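Batch manifest, entry 17 of 40.
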Amino acid sequence: MRNLIRYCAILSIFLMFSCGENAEKKSEETPAEETETKTEAEVSEKNVILFFGNSLTAGMGLEPSEAFPALIQDRLDSLGYEYEVVNAGLSGETTASGKNRINWVLNQDVDVFVLELGANDGLRGIPIEETKRNLQDIIDTVKEENPGTKIVLAGMQIPPNMGEEYTTEFRNIFPELSEKNDVPLIPFLLEGVAGDPELNQQDGIHPTADGYKIVTDNVWSVLEKVVEKE
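Output type: structure tokens
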């Protein structure tokens, strides 16, 4: 708990200064066309798992091969699963900007869609219902584009700066959406990593390569029940 409180404090201070800047720069520095996705020709022979999220999915501060989507690909390959992982993480992403980007991302066929968004909303104090509605709209869009796509939702927690009520309601967004839509939930993406200086980069927010190994385990504990071995 002490580590989580320390993590929350660092996270709050960092994002107070960086989130706005990231939002302003993301279209300039990381346009949608440059997100690390595979072309349809490259993934057509395998089922596709698409990770749709923010800097935690993108692997900010590390090589792409060290981020958890790449580590999930390694695990799938080692176990003989015929899946191609697509990392569609974008630093600074909110649920609103994710909602605007979702149709472009779904230009390719997706078999498993992992939704990791919401943390930036909570840290900016965006109304709970707005965040929840945006996440629901993203889920609905995925279902409409391809009813056969399996959806996995990644849960997140935020610092208590916005007050206990807001913090609790934010945390509850994810299990509530999971139950409503009957989709699997990763309870807390950063479980076992948040607040541990040895597992986070100097900013105290983004996992190190070792931290991402734990995040990978958190994701795989749910994802392994969703993927199918051919």
